[in-house]
Design brief:
ABC-2 type transport system ATP-binding protein; elongated; binds adenosine-5'-triphosphate; alpha/beta; 31% helix; P-loop_NTPase; ATP binding; six-stranded mixed sheet
Length: 317
């Protein structure tokens, strides 16, 4: 079901102050039976960001999103979001009719919303189809849509009104590579228009490429949040040299003042610090080191995540 909220805010939700589209304070959900799905969550989602809500399956992402939309009552803590009529959400794919066109499906979907004025339904649907790049396929039956088109139609359903915030729960789940690309570029386009996008994913690479900010969840708890750059930037870039003269290379790099030199077979790496890689290359060659390869490696979000949690992560996609 796609939840597109047009009603007033549920109790407990009020517009956040300042520059944030979503703020949560100690937000907690304990299900009957004692399981804590979300544990003291403090989120701050800046307006205008594409905020990746990242975590493996079962880490509490969907439960958090359901609380933000007023669909699940928190056990404790509080949250604020932009006014709910200005929030579009895609929590699970809406059930579209296979034999109806994309346009007819959206008209039916729109008609189910009692607050949406009937007079402007066609214009609203046309604008939403245009927004997701489906105008040319408006009259085509849903069953002939590709996976990517189907998901874009679902996003169009969440964009039937003017939105300040779009919440998408795992929007690329189950899509083929082409559909995944379509949805990722659509998310970037929507964000470029000024809509804040809060998007959950279990794919690190996806969040790294699509988002400006991220929160990393693990077993209901927030492990880290911030800009992608700040999350990855906590670790210094390293220079990596591939050479059969690894011991000599390590000596040269140490002699030049590089720290954290690590020798591993035919590879030597060290913290780059303020050194210029091309100067280091020249120094190595001058010292008689046969340099086969030289690169500067910046830590990825994955390495940061593994460093924070000591666990691996699904990095496909
Ligand atoms: N209605 C419920 N009753 C009891 N436990 C639940 C309920 N909904 C979710 N949980 C549990 O809470 C934890 C968090 O689930 P949640 O669906 O929020 O995680 P998620 O990160 O969105 O994962 P997924 O991507 O698999 O949905 C899980 O262990 C799940 O089994």
């Amino acid at each position: 079901m796609s939840v597109t909220l047009e009603a007033g805010a549920p109790s407990g939700a009020s517009p956040p102050a300042g520059g944030d589209a979503i703020v949560t304070d100690g937000l907690t959900k304990r299900f009957k039976g004692g399981q804590v799905a979300v544990d003291s969550l403090d989120l701050a989602v800046p307006r205008g960001s594409v905020y990746g809500f990242l975590g493996p399956n079962g880490s509490g992402k969907t439960t958090t999103i359901r609380m933000l939309l007023g669909l699940v009552t928190p056990t404790s803590g509080s949250y604020t979001v932009v006014p709910l009529p200005r929030v579009g959400a895609l929590v699970e794919g809406p059930a579209f009719y296979p034999y109806l066109s994309g346009e007819a499906n959206l008209l039916r979907y729109d008609a189910a919303d009692p607050t949406a004025p009937r007079r402007t339904a066609r214009a609203r649907v046309a604008a939403a189809l245009d927004r997701v790049g489906l105008s040319a396929a408006a009259a085509k039956r849903y069953r002939h849509y590709s996976l990517g088109m189907r998901q874009r139609l679902a996003i169009a359903a969440a964009l039937l009104g003017p939105r300040e915030l779009l919440i998408l729960d795992e929007p690329t789940n189950g899509l083929d590579p082409q559909g995944t690309r379509e949805v990722r570029s659509l998310v970037k386009e929507i964000a470029a228009d000024g809509t804040t996008v809060f998007v959950s994913s279990h794919l690190l690479a996806e969040v790294e490429h699509m988002c400006t900010h991220a929160a990393i969840m693990r077993a209901g708890r927030l492990v880290a949040q911030g800009t992608i750059a700040s999350l990855s930037g906590g670790r210094a870039p390293r220079i990596r040299v591939e050479t059969p003269d690894a011991a000599d290379a390590a000596r040269v790099l140490r002699g030049l003042g590089l720290s954290a030199v690590v020798l591993d077979g035919v590879e030597v790496s060290a913290e780059l610090g303020g050194h210029a890689p091309e100067r280091l290359n020249a120094s190595l060659v001058e010292a008689g080191v046969a340099v086969r390869g030289l690169s500067v490696v910046r830590p990825s979000l994955e390495e940061v995540f593994v460093g924070l949690t000591g666990e691996g992560f699904d990095v496909e996609g």
